[in-house]
Amino acid sequence: MIIKSFKKVMLLGVAGVALAFSLSAYAQQEIKIGAVYPLSGAAASSGAEMKNALELAADIINNGAKGIPNLPFSAGGGLPNLKGAKIKLIFADHQGNPQIGASETERLITQEKVVAIIGAYASNVTATSSQVAERYKVPYLNPESSSATLTQRGFKWFFRTTAHDDLFVHNFFEFFKELEAKKGIKVKQLATFNENTLWGNETTKLEVKLAAERGYTMTKTITYPAKSTQLTSEIQSLKAANPQVVMESSYLGDAIMAMKTYKELGFSPDMILANNAGFTDTEFRRTLGKDSDYVITREVWSPDLAKNNPLIKQVNDLYNSKYKADFTGNSSRTFTGLMTLADAINRAASTEPEAIRKALVETNIPGNKIIMPWKGIKFDEQGQNTYGSGILVQIIDGKYNTVWPFDMATKDIVWPMPKWDARK
Question: Which residue ranges does the record assign to the Leucine-binding protein domain (predicted)?
Fold first, then answer.
């Protein structure tokens, strides 16, 4: 009888296939979620941290986390509205390649029969990967990619929990304004130094636009090829332009190479103002040591914000005890993304894609239930979390310290950066 019913479902076409996936996952008491991340290649270090965050979130949902009662699913035992069904993560390595990201997403949907996708960190990979999920009508939860256009495509199945670059770049210019008003530090000459994929190119456009609108001089605009093997000529051009502040968007390998080249060429602007990514990877500080100090980077998370939200320290301690490192802005968002997706699947009480999509639309998680310094998670009609926000942190003595907004700061800003030959 069960076999006959299943055959009947299969005759219903694409909708039937989706329902069959859902019935299969439920029958096995297992919720398969596809995770598309850079597990090899230039961003492998970042990918490894995000993979760890996903595995921690799944472990909490499946097995619990004692002593953290305010964290959703901390009691363990799987998803209660699906009779304790456990989360099973199926990982795929996109290697930083948009085409591989797309093909791996299709494999996860058609062969692994996942009920949802989470990923994919790099905005250009998220763009192609999510197109596949949209075509197959499978929910796609994006925790980290910040290209503003990702939620401007009219997609029905795409949801993003992080804030985006439109907000983050506006934050940079609000920071400059408050820096003058509250600290007496006047910034006028800027330069941009960004990688040339979707993320870097869109960031450059917005930075140039806002600089012109707000009366700043853009002394140089440089986009360099992603995964470059050297940046000497580009940084020589930056140095010749003599900006006060370099606004930089680089993934890990490029960020490390840029800092080494700045030092080699003796280039010391007043500040390097980074747009997250490589500058917030644990490996950035580990590789550069003291040479990473004084950089200011856009962030969404910092351990020193635990004074405002006990969950930040409690969950970070769990992560640290397991992986011997703190969360980063990337991995904390990834953790939050899976917890959000699990919340939707649980409220849907179903693994049917449309039910999960509907539950995501109705998401309204308060800020005291997440580890991010946000008001919460609530999606608009484009699938963008309207409660996301950003902060600025500065690396001092090898640690990230919140320095803006000034009313949230845990340490005074160091400005300008000391010259290379004046550092201890």
Answer: 30-394
Note whether residue 208 is domain-resident.
yes
CB atoms under 10 Å from CB of 214, counted, come to 11
Structure tokens at 100: 């591989």
Q: How far is C-alpha 11 from the chain's CA centre? A: 40
User: Which pLDDT value is given to residue 20?
Assistant: 46
pLDDT above 80 (res 87): yes
* pLDDT confidence tier of residue 144, bands split at 50, 70 and 90: very high
Q: How far apart are CA 372 and CA 316, in angstroms?
A: 11
CA distance 280 to 274: 9
Are 268 and 216 within one domain? yes
Nearest residue to 326 via CA among 282, 366, 363, 288 = 282
Strand partners, 91: 35
- Average pLDDT value for residue range 342-363: 98
d(CA 350, CA 344): 9
Strands 189-195 and 245-249, by their bridges, are parallel
> What is the domain extent for residue 87?
2-163+309-377
The C-alpha angle 341, 165, 378, rounded to 5 degrees, equals: 35
- Same-domain status, 159 and 264: no
Neighbouring CB atoms inside 10 A of 232's CB total: 12
